[in-house]
């Protein structure tokens, strides 16, 4: 279990490397901003598809998908939802945690490159870690796993940028 949590934490390091890339190639950030935003949306969409694949389709899943979409429209902390996605991926005993956290890592590269304030990086780390810590508290989420996937898929659904 500790190895999987370390894999989840490595998923967050993409935004740290993004900040490092921003410092190394500052002159490239301005012209590439449009493409960085496209990359972020692409990686979120890929993550959305990965979670949709694990959903048992039903009316309750659809309702939770819509609720996830609506809540994420109000609470715009993307790394909170990515942390929940990472924690939920640990409940599947396969390659899914590695896939999810690789996509989160790739999402973090353009995200970190576009960060204007590095203090937001610490806020995102805290939001990302909260679901992982709650996973360490041995709760039985396996029965409702598919419904939680629907909620996360809804929260990752593309929205208009503010």
Features:
mainly alpha
Overall description:
- This protein is an all-alpha fold.
- The chain has helices spanning 2-24, 26-53, 59-74, 78-89, 96-114, 119-136, 145-156.
- Helix 3 crosses helix 7 and helix 4 packs parallel to helix 6.
- The mean pLDDT is 86.
Question: How many beta-strand elements?
Answer: 0
The description of the largest β-sheet is:
none
* Ends apart, CA distance between termini: 38 Å
Strand content: under 5%
Q: Roughly what percent helix?
A: over 70%
Rg (C-alpha, Å): 16 Å
Order of helices and strands: HHHHHHH
- Give the overall pLDDT as a whole number: 86
Question: How many helix segments?
Answer: 7
Number of domains: 1
- Unreliable stretches covering 5 or more consecutive residues: none
Task: Describe the global form.
Answer: globular
What's a quick, concise take on this entry?
The chain has 7 helices and no strands.
């Amino acid at each position: 279990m500790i190895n999987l949590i370390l894999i989840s934490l490595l998923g967050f390091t993409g935004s740290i490397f993004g900040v490092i890339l921003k410092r190394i190639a500052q002159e490239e950030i301005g012209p590439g901003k449009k493409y960085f935003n496209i990359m972020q949306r692409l990686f979120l969409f890929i993550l959305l598809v990965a979670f949709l694949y694990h959903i048992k389709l039903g009316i309750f899943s659809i309702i939770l998908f819509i609720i996830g979409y609506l809540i994420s429209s109000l609470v715009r902390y993307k790394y909170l939802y990515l942390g929940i996605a990472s924690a939920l991926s640990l409940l599947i005993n396969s390659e899914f945690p590695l896939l999810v956290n690789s996509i989160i890592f790739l999402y973090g590269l353009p995200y970190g490159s576009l960060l204007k304030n590095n203090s937001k990086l610490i806020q995102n780390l805290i939001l990302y870690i909260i679901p992982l810590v709650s996973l360490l508290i041995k709760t039985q989420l396996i029965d409702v796993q598919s419904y939680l996937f629907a909620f996360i898929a809804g929260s990752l659904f593309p929205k208009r940028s503010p």
